[in-house]
Structures are given as C-alpha cells and as structure tokens.
Amino acid sequence: MTDPKLLSRLVERYYTNQATTEELEVFIDLQKKGVLDEALNDYLEGVIKEEAIQPEASFQHQPKRGQLMMIAASVSLLLLTGFLAMWALKGINEVNYVQVQTDQFKEKQIRLSDGSLVVLNRNSAFAYPEKWSGESRDVKLLSGEAYFEIKQNKKYQSFIVHTPDDFKIDVLGTEFNISSKNGQTKVYLESGKVKVERHGQKSVLKPGELAEYDKETGQITVQQANGELWLAWKNDMFFFDDATLSDIGKTLEDYYHKNVIIENESLASLRFTGKISRNNIDMVLKILSRTLNIDIMHHKDQIIMENSEKVYRHAD
Predict the structure, then answer these.
(1) What is the predicted pLDDT for the residue at 217?
(2) pTM
(3) What is the residue-wise DSSP string for 28-51?
(4) What are the structural domains of the chain?
(5) What residues contact residue 25 under an 8 Å CB cut-off, 6+ apart?
C-alpha cells in the first residue's frame, strides 16, 4: 500500500478510532517500516491548522513545533499499546495442542475428550487441542497414518483434520482413514460422509471411496477402493492385493525390522493375494511359502527367500 490517499485515509481512521483489526495490523506494519511518516506529519499538521482557526484561545492552544514532535512521538506509544493489546487478545484465542508420536514398533489409540477415537499407525504423529474452542474440532495429522471414529457433537458439529500439505478433511459422525506420507495424502471413507478440500478443490466422499492428492499434479482424484486394503493395519492384519513378493518383502522389513533377501528376480515378481494376521511372523512366512511354493528361512534378523531346490542344497 503506497497510494498517498489510502495512507492518509488509514491514518485518519486510526486517529478517529474507526480502524478495524485488519487495518490496525496494516497501520502497525507500515509505521514500523516508515511508510506512514509523511502521512502522519500531514495529518498532524492538518489538526494543528484546524485548531489554529478556532475563534477563541487560538493563540493559547496552538502547538509549537516542539509540541508537534511530542504528538508525533506519542504515536509510537499508542502503536505499542495497540500492538500489545492485539497480542494479548490473540493469546486468549491461542490453542495449546497435545502431540502424540508413535515409533516404528507400536500403534497407539487416542480417545479424545468428545469420545472420538483416533488409532495412530506406526511412525506417525498427531496433534489435538487440550480443549475444544471456536466452532469446530480441529486436529492435525502431522505425518504418517491414522484411523478415525468420530462422534457427533451438538456443540462442535464439525470435526476437521488438517495435513501438512494443506489438505482439509471436514467430517460429521463417520469412520475414515488418512495416510499422509511423502507429500501424498489419501483419505478412505469407511462410513458416513466427509468433505475433502485443498486450495479451492472440493470433493465429497461416499463410503468405499478413496480421495488422493498428488503434490506433483496438485490434483485430487476420487475412486472406489478396497476397504480391507486400507483398514487392515488397524486390525493388525496384512492385506496383499496381487502384490509382488518384492513389495511383500519391503512390508515385512518395515513391520518386523528384518533384512529380507530374495535370491533372484523371478521370485521377486511372484504375486500374492491374501489377508494374514501380523501377530506371528513364522505363520506369515509359512503361508507365503506354501502359497507361492518357495522356501523361506528365518534366522535372527534375516529372512531369505529362495527356490526350494536351493534351500535343500544349503541344508546338505
């Protein structure tokens, strides 16, 4: 803002106590930068001239140059007072968030004060306010993945989840899953209704639909998805949908913290579809071995997947 008329108008609104909160913030910012110096001087000169033409006591009340400087100097005090008042008011509305973070070994359940449940996956971070305030319940999925069971609330009807890439998920009573990893946010709706929004793009999801935001294209896409695939982790299950053994190996490495070795590319391209409990690693490996007709050796921190004949030779 550099238009002299606009600057003069801003100064006038400030001194006549008509400035809005937004205008006061602009006034403080411009005054600190020295942009308002000329407009302030012009305004104060105008005030002096008006007082000087008063019929009585014009001589007695006409400010001298030193008095003018005192008036100008008082602006800084007024600005400081106004700034501190604004800061104090903002402090009243500040929300203190509780942050919860999981490591690579364990998920965590969080019961919010409204009765809603958040299940936080491994390697994830979530933040929620100590007390609800405003008109909605705002929480933040800082990273990773979380499953939400949201309770309806008469006082705070809206529940909003924010992600690091400015994705906003607005829900009522519903159950859904959010994954926010490597700049990609994915929202799967199990039941109820949610609205996803980012920078003006909006989509309303129906149960069974998956919304996905891609940071490279900047677009939100919505499609039907397999709920078992997106919710398996919450039920302590692996769910593989035509997954390659290579991808399965990475999943086992991430979950069990083992080094998975697949001896050749032909094995790595084998595909598997199925749902397996994650509780017992030996059972997982046995099911994979029998289904794919391969041999799997599990020794301490290492899992080796080979053709059957290779394993037999090692055993000799």
Answers:
(1) 82
(2) 0.61
(3) HHHHHHTTTHHHHHHHHHHHHHHH
(4) 4-93 (no CATH), 97-230 (2.60.120.1440), 236-315 (3.55.50.30)
(5) 86
